[in-house]
Amino acid sequence: MSRTRAKLVVADPNVAGVSGTYNYNPNYKPRAASHQGDSQYAWDDSQGHKMVLLFESSMRSGGAALTAGGHGGDVTLEGPRISHAMLSLFCKR
Fold first, then answer.
1. Average pLDDT, the chain
2. Distance from chain centroid for Cα 26
3. Residues 19, 82: Cα–Cα separation, whole Å
4. Coil, strand, or helix at residue 71?
5. Taking a C-beta distance cutoff of 8 angstroms, is the pair 76, 90 a contact?
6. Spatial contact of 57 and 30, defined as CB atoms under 8 Å apart
7. Residue ranges of E strands in the chain
8. Confidence (pTM)
9. Which of 72, 73, 75 is nearest to 89 (CA)?
């Protein structure tokens, strides 16, 4: 099952203001070799800032099985609402 929406909930106050519902972009074509095979979800906040989640396509159907239980994977958050415009995160579902 593929997901068309991803909800990002951030507990870290250093990354405040990026929580929201991100919509799948089926037309995403990565320019960087490091993002080949990734999926993109985007969120436009009320101030016109576009935030983007990039993660391995396997996350669209649940992610990799984790040894501690559950599923997850690496996620890249990009956009103007965070310092340095890029942040790598680990997502657990």
1. 84
2. 14
3. 12
4. strand
5. no
6. no
7. 5-8, 20-24, 38-44, 50-56, 64-65, 71-78, 86-92
8. 0.78
9. 75
CA distance linking residue 81 with residue 15, whole number of Å? 8
- Assigned token pair, 28: 């995403």
pLDDT digits (tens, 9 = 90+) for 26-51: 999 988 888 888 999 999 877 888 89
Here the tokens at position 31 are 């320019």
Give the Cα separation of 9 and 49 in Å (integer).
17
Which CA distances in Å does 58 have to 39, 71, 72, 78? 9, 10, 9, 19
The predicted pLDDT at position 2 comes to 58
pLDDT above 50 for 1: no
Residues 36 and 55 sit within 8 Å (Cβ to Cβ): no
